[in-house]
Amino acid sequence: QNMHGMTSEEIVDLTRRLNYGTWRFQKSWNPVHIADAEDCYIIDGAGKRYLDFSSQLMCVNLGHKNPVVVESIAQQARELPYAMPGYATATRAELSKLLLEVLPEGINKFFFTTSGTEANEAAFKIARMYTGKSKIIARYRSYHGSTSGSIAATGDPRRWAMEPGGKGPGVVFGPEVNCYRCPMKHTYPQCGVACADYIEHMIRNESDVAAVLLEPIVGTNGVLVPPDEYFPKLRKICDENGVLMIADEVMTGWGRTGKWFAVEHWGVTPDILVTAKGITSAYVPLGLCATSEKIGDFFLDHYFAHGHTYEAHPMTLAPAVATIHEMQRLNLVDRAAELAPYVESKLRALKEKHRSIGEVRGKGLFWAVDLVKNRETKEPFNTYTDKVSGAPLLVDQIAGKMFADGVAIQAWVSHFVIAPPLIVTKEELDRGIDALDKHLSLADEKCV
Ligand code: PLP
């Protein structure tokens, strides 16, 4: 029994009967009751601890139940739980000033939302209002959120459920940057990063393009790190063609890749930076659409036609202030960068050992282990079509075995995402990777 007066069985039963499980068939949903969490661990109703090897949905960057962040929420509730967004609050002023310290220089006007998808919706509207143009160029193998605009701009198959009726107007898809499985069948570096050039070809042939929307490192779809030339080249293309660059840093922000924001790896400043998740370490729902001064200035004498009841909600902003202070105090961005070579060497050794691993790739504490049936053909074990047909996925079977061993990992179609809280220790990294090592034989024996 817990403070809610229910057993784990009752909690799971009520959850299944009265709630929707996301991105899945409902019948097979059998959620584990999570009762507590602490640092790099989640704890089930029976008290069993699981290493949180993907920070839940790649969002609990500080680790669970950081006392400073928890206290900031309680303190804000006592001080001022809510004021409508038209008023000025000390919490918004403090956070906005602090954001100037951590965001790329020149990004200095903020609109707060309560999710990543809403922050993207704001970005699209701002880009369209500012440029007076309508089209957004997004890329295949991307995810930008589940609401109408963001899902329409999502290149991965999660968009399909919305089509044909739900497809938003004004989104066109270009090639993803994916050197392991290049959609143009090119080889880097001989290709000269033609995938960026093709975006320019699209801009010129589409006309009416407001913005190019990109995850700096593609997240859910496999931690796809672009070659170093890609972002500087694309920045130049956007500038030369009068098109805005929107960086979706919902997953890659907040130290995850060893920089505060992933665009910093390539010294590129987007016109609009969208983020969420790690901004509060996910303790409360907060998203941010941050723009350049030039865009901010435009709205001085143009109507800003956007808003939410919960925009800049004080309860969501206070923990962001605390999160930034804690990240600075614990030096977590550098820590993610420093641990990267250790993770990389461990994962490269894992690849040597297991023929089912096609590629390992990543940056900072953000890595993918990509499983293939055959290294020559790079054929994955499963596809998204298997997922939506309800077929059991091999990665889910392996993740299930790891969970039984006390390691929680995110699996997606045919790869794993390793993204532990940035406070993770080397011993915890060893433990998570060892658990994967132990169960990869399930995949190795299915290789052809
Ligand atoms: N953009 C990216 C890159 C994401 O990874 C996600 C969520 O995983 C989103 C947007 C949507 O964020 P949210 O789930 O908070 O709406």
From TrEMBL:
An MF annotation (GO) of this entry: N2-acetyl-L-ornithine:2-oxoglutarate 5-aminotransferase activity
Keywords from the UniProt entry: Aminotransferase, Pyridoxal phosphate, Transferase
Signal sequence bounds: none
GO cellular component, one term: cytosol
InterPro entries documented for this protein: Aminotrans_3, PyrdxlP-dep_Trfase, PyrdxlP-dep_Trfase_major, PyrdxlP-dep_Trfase_small
First-level EC class: transferase
Domain of life: Bacteria
Enzyme Commission no: 2.6.1.11
Family: Belongs to the class-III pyridoxal-phosphate-dependent aminotransferase family.
Listed name of the protein: Acetylornithine transaminase
The organism of origin for this protein: Granulicella mallensis (strain ATCC BAA-1857 / DSM 23137 / MP5ACTX8)
